Amino acid sequence: MKKFTSIVCLFLFLIAINIQMVKAQALKIGVFDIQRIMRESKTIEGYRQEFLKNIETKKRLLKDKEDSVKSIENKFRKEMDTLSVSEKKAMEERLERELKELKRLREDIDSELIKMDRELTQKAFANIGSVIKSIAEKEGYSIIFERNQAGIVHLKDSIDITKKILKELN
Predict the structure, then answer these.
(1) pLDDT score, position 119
(2) Is pTM, for the whole model, over 0.70?
(3) Interatomic CA distance for residues 12 and 6, integer angstroms
(4) Nearest to residue 139, comparing CAs of 163, 113, 114?
(5) Which helix (H) or strand (E) holds 4?
(6) Sequential DSSP letters for 122-142
């Protein structure tokens, strides 16, 4: 019985120490909304504009190539009856070559845009991550969650640090 009493006393002592440690280390929790940051951040908007500018440049390049192929195709259709067999064959080969180049260009542009999107997204998340880390260190946050990934349904506005992140990003 003495042994049981001493174990209970030890257990209560450890709980009391643990409570004091928790009080000494106040747990500060923060939450942010990545979707809002992606919508409202001027830095992220800059990345988006850079991406859109590249899309437009690539679209123009692709459009020029498509117009060139259409021009060759139209010329071939108009002159088909007047061309010799060898000229027809040469024109068909040229058209086939141009169509292959167009297809290759489309694939290259698609892969370039996917790569650029991935790089800009990584750059954006790296910026956001460094801002979050800076805020966490400056303000003593123990844990910071991304609102949607953490499955948070409700939270007090006082722990939402999205505005702070946006302020530092912009």
Answers:
(1) 93
(2) no
(3) 10
(4) 163
(5) helix 2-24
(6) HHHHHHHHHHHHHHHHHHT-S
